[in-house]
Write a structure and sequence with these properties.
Elements (H helix, E strand, L loop, with lengths): L2 H21 L6 H4 L5 H16 L3 H16 L1 H8 L9 H23 L12 E11 L3 E4 L9 E8 L3 E12 L5 E12 L8 E5 L6 H13 L3 E7 L5 H11 L3 H4 L1 H18 L9 E5 L2 H12 L6 E4 L22 H4 L1 H6 L16 H20 L1
Parallel strand pairs: 6-7, 6-8, 8-9
Antiparallel strand pairs: 1-2, 1-3, 3-7, 4-5
Helix pairs in contact: 1-3, 1-4, 1-6, 3-4, 4-6, 7-14, 10-11
Length: about 375
Amino acid sequence: MDFMIDIMVSQLLVLVLLFIVNFRVFGKNKKNQEVFVVLAPVSLLLSVLLIFAWGLTLPTLLIIILSFLNCLINFYSIIRFFSKLMTGYYGIGLFVFSVLLQVLIVLTAAFIVVTRPVSISIEDYSVEEKSVSIIGSYGIGFTERISMFDKIDGKVSKFIPVAQEQEVFVQENSVQINQDEFIQDETLINTQPFTEEKNLPLVFIVAEPRETISQLKPLAIQLASKGYKVYVAEFFDSPFESFGKRFLGVLKKDYFDKNKSQFVQMAMGQYTELLEMYDGKNNDSDVYLVGDGICGDAIERLYQLMPDVVSGFYILNGNTSNGASQKLFDWHSGFGFLGETAPWLLWILGSTDNFFYCRDEMNFNSILAASEAHKVFDSDKVAEK
């Protein structure tokens, strides 16, 4: 099961628990079924834990609200249960509110299923992912987090192609059986890795203020499957920051334009820190930068400032280092691959007409962007030679 489906399943599991809690009021043997009320605080706890497991999203926020309402409606039932004061009847108010809450639970579950992220199995692309938390600051630099008690200041996910073995043959002899035909005796002598990790070209991606790593993961998988070692980083002050920035980006679309220079400078610092952490400046491999929105402006400047380090860049739905450009389908700058990772946000941004079109694998923006980026990076490599 892949990352995106894990999120949906965990969300639906909490909704199932909420449904069970409220369904108990319709049973015949109410005293025996009262035990299910203990699932109300459990559901609230699990819904909050979803934030720390997957980050804060609209579906998770809806589940937290429903869990809180569920505990509020069943507050006296919870008190009676833990006080061992079981009851054989429920008031009309509890029935009415339970029915209303059940309807909201079903609607929320339907919303989550319909707007579920596209299933992307990383194993199908022969790619391996390693994720770490990072700590530090722009003054002293960032390092990978070792102690669980350290405050997390960001996350980095590394995507690398799984080393595939190729067969190596050696020709021992050739026997001529007629004037034009030969029989070649070939013997398999060993297998060796298709490519070594240390020789792979490097791609560095920093999540825009309105993005998270999960919104860029489809692109990272596609690039890694083409033979790149991809680092995707997300810097934040709290796990809620990116959700707040996305919310702000929806309500005040001009906020990031008005403060663009400040965000671009911050993004340049983040790319520089990422390069420092993973030897992007002192490496024999080619180094490429990929960015979206504000981060796109940052990598274009870094390409000009560090020509000896950065071999090329690719801006999603924008400029590239070789002068080419590509328009991605129904792209919302700064929000990442919404059609594949957060379809619910497409609805909020008003892309209802194209909702199902961009969820078709033939139209995945991540596939289109990775193919175009690969062409750009290849052309940059030829230009260098």
